[in-house]
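Quiz preparation item.
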């Protein structure tokens, strides 16, 4: 169990990723470490915002943050959801349930963000909610969604928008569910710092930071936390587990299916 570790070599123990991507183990669980990191972030920054996708990783991150915020008297937890338009019905239903929680203040954005496009040899990118191509929309914009922002420009990426959406005057830390186990790119992202592997600063905006409090969790740790905590989750995963992706935890995704990596599951839709 990720809440009770006895084997120092198990995937449930904390993995510290050093600069040379070596692993060393500590005498605490990933659950304990994540709570300590989030509490530290609350004390260090003026504002924390959880990037919530509706996936398993951001589900664990959001609920861990709620645990800490409740202890510190910081509820409700701020969260943002960037609706990618081409997402599964259970994802929409799940994020809506999260939005209605009293311990979460979730902002649901439907803006024309830029995405990599692996479905065309002619167009490198596609844009969700593109107002000039409304006839191609997968679905209509929900009534409760935010459809404009004074600092948003057409075709921005999530990172670009995150770097400008918060005004200056206070330090903001955007929390993400990035985990090193997911890919080599993510592993490098959290091993490129001398200290505090899970915290980085925006290259463009000095008052915006990013933190990955569950970077050393395994996929099994995430699902153990969801199961043992009895929290709500995205039932798209239940559908995926009825297919050839059963128990292939690193291949299961709930994001839009048109990029290079998620394209392999386009047939599921």
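Solution:
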């Amino acid at each position: 169990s990720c809440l009770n570790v006895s084997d120092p070599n198990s995937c449930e123990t904390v993995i510290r990723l050093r600069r040379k991507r070596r692993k060393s183990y500590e005498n605490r669980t990933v659950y304990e470490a994540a709570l300590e990191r989030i509490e530290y972030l609350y004390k260090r920054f003026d504002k924390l915002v959880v990037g919530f996708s509706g996936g398993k990783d951001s589900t664990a991150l959001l609920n861990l943050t709620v645990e800490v915020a409740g202890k510190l008297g910081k509820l409700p937890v701020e969260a943002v959801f960037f609706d990618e338009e081409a997402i599964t019905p259970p994802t929409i239903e799940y994020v809506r349930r999260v939005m209605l929680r009293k311990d979460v203040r979730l902002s649901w954005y439907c803006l024309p963000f830029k995405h990599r496009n692996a479905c065309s040899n002619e167009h490198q990118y596609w844009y969700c909610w593109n107002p000039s191509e409304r006839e191609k929309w997968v679905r209509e914009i929900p009534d409760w969604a935010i459809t404009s922002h004074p600092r948003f420009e057409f075709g921005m990426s999530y990172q670009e928008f995150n770097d400008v959406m918060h005004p200056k005057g206070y330090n903001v830390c955007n929390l993400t569910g990035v985990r090193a186990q997911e890919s080599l790119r993510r592993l490098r992202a959290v091993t490129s710092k001398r200290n505090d592997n899970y915290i980085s600063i925006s290259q463009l905006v000095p008052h915006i930071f990013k933190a990955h409090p569950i970077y050393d969790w395994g996929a099994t740790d995430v699902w153990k936390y969801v199961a043992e905590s009895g929290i709500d989750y995205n039932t798209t995963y239940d559908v995926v587990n009825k297919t050839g992706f059963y128990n292939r935890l690193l291949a299961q995704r709930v994001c839009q299916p048109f990029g290079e990596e998620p394209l392999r599951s386009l047939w599921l839709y």
